[in-house]
Amino acid sequence: MLALKDLRVRMKLLLIIGSALVGVIALVSMSLLFLNQDLQREKELKTRHLVETAHSVLGFYQKMSAEGKVSPQQAKTMAMAAVKAMRYGDNEYFWLNDMQPKIVMHPIKPELDGTDVSNLKDTTGKRFIVACVDTVKAHGAGFVYYLWPKPGFDKPVQKLSYVKGFAPWGWIIGSGIYLDDVKVIFWQSARQYALAGMAVFLLITAMSVVVAGNIARTEESLRLSEEKFFKAFHASPDCYTISRKADGVYIEANEAFFRTTGYSRNEIIGHSSLDIGVWANPEQRSQMIERMGNEGGLRNIETNQRTKSGEMRTLLCSCDPITLKGEECIILIKHDITGRKERERQLLKGKAELTVKHEQLSILFRTVESIKKDWERTMDCIDDQVIMLDGQGKVKRCNRSTAKFTGLPEGEIIGLDWTQFTQSAGMPSLGLNDRSAEYYHKDLERWLSCNYYPWGAGGPGELGAVITIHDMTESKLAAMEIGKAYHELQVTQSQLIQQEKMATIGQLAAGVAHEINNPTGFVMSNLGTLGKYADRLIEFIAAQTEAIGCQESQEEAGRITALRKHLKINYIIDDLPNLIRESLGGTERVKTIVQNLKGFSRQDQSQCQMTDIRECIESTINIVWNELKYKVTLNREYGELPLVRCYPQQLNQVIMNFLVNAGHAIETQGEITVRTWLQGNAVHIAISDTGSGISEEHRARIFEPFFTTKEVGKGTGLGLSISLNIIKKHGGDVAVESEVGKGTTFTVTLPLDGCQEDVVIGEAC
User: Fold this and answer.
1) What is the pLDDT of residues 638-653, one digit of tens each?
2) Rounded to whole angstroms, how far apart are CA atoms 106 and 223?
3) Whole-model pTM?
4) Helix (H, G, I), strand (E, B), or coil: what is residue 319?
5) Which pLDDT score, from 0 to 100, does residue 527 have?
6) Cα distance between residue 512 and residue 95, in whole Å
């Protein structure tokens, strides 16, 4: 095959002219293609910018509505009027439609306003309005192409429309530009480009002729050029090497190469680059040679090469095949870009950091906007009314509950003076001096709670505030019900206390009966004996009377004496006073027990009075003694105590509960110790037992109402709860110490002045 170097100069000239012609044609074609694309893009950008400008007009009026300057309907009317008046070009306009689609506003054909245009089609059958709606739904905005006749013409031409949705009102705004003028401009430019291309071709042809005339001179000067080349070769700041293609042996290298790699001339010339280890990746050289064979030459191939010291350098390599002395060689130009690559890495790092920060900032802005919307939705979801006032005391914001309460649209509430607002709504006017109020709204028949929260800094004129209005009707009614229930609970509690007392009295009834039966028994026995004695005395007295009446013989006198001795008249006379005294003692004890039982069972409505605590303890012991005496040894350790002002019947109940519980804690035999002492201004009563004790888990609950560890039917769980309440009512306290298996001690601390009612002095427990 004939090589290019073997062609004659004339043929080379023809090839150059033909290549130039092809290149000019290709350049003109590409330029026209790019021109057509640019004209199309220019039309798109123009339409988009115009529609976005009109879109911003809608945003302006919507913002006025959001700020409360106009109502939403007024904002829409003003926006339609503004868009309707907008024109550009000769007679281009904007239209508005909704998502149905229906025309909202058409400035050229007002008869279309409010009509459904979903079936409006171009000459190809394309429903272009529906296509506009689909584009907005899918992307929010976009371009739509269709065919439509220009005003005043019947023939349809291609038209480009840009549409963009306006979400707050559910509108779509759009405008279109006819593209027929694009073809006119294109063909005008095509003629101009063709003429310019022809001129360039003629210029290249002329230059080729001139070049052809100079080729001879060029060949003559080639030798001189080669000499200049080698001078430039060695003087270049870039690394130049010439090596054999086959084995990579260096034939020549310039000073820049030796300086960059650190090798001397003797270490390079005559040695292979592969043996020296210049290439960090030897396969790169093989790949470059392969590409060079396919492409003829390579430019700016980035490679990594190693210096003598082992440092890695980044080089841009350009190579071309040459022939020296009939041997295929490669001339390799290496430009050191290590510093530039490092700067690029730093630049990319900074750019990446800037991109990350920009993205973080964008995320922050989106987060803030999302939080704002979430907060507004939150405020609209709550039932309480929330109103924000500005520094002048006017309503700045409010939630949906406020509009519902007042019956006014939110837009009309914004800007109202707070005082006027409260007067119109029938509310109290709150401020810095009065920040909360409860009131009854007669019209709504609701209880409302209003709170004023000032915020901001500076003088009073600069302060804003947040007002909250809470409907507390349910809680108010519940409080009334609770009050009623509390009163009923007090009555029930009083009944429970009396029932507990009666239950305790019933528990002790058998013991009291036993205590009464004992003295009654020996009284009856003594009285029976006394009856027999009386019979004998009567018999004796009768005999004596008879004897005295007769007074006839000594013998009779002896018989009377014997009878007196037989009937033990002397013993009877001696024993009769004792019997009578014991009988009186027994009946007195019965009287005491009955009186104590009567006093203990009295209703807890007695007066607060000065009381001897020891007498209260003793009277209670008399009542419960039958419950204790068979298994308890009772120890009394009374200290000197002053009179205490208290409710004695209630105090009796407390002491009785502790004594009975102590007795129940002792299973077989044990001791109960009752101690009293004075400390400061309080009397202390300690009741200790040697019973089973109370576990730690139960100790924290023993004073809870209805809590009991006794078997079912043996306790109500109210005794200790009632006792603690009684002591608390006296201003005192109850402490408990217990150890399982060793016993329990209840210590009552009772102030000397335990109640505040009028004092009755001298009344015993």
Assistant:
1) 999 999 998 887 888 8
2) 80
3) 0.32
4) strand
5) 67
6) 107
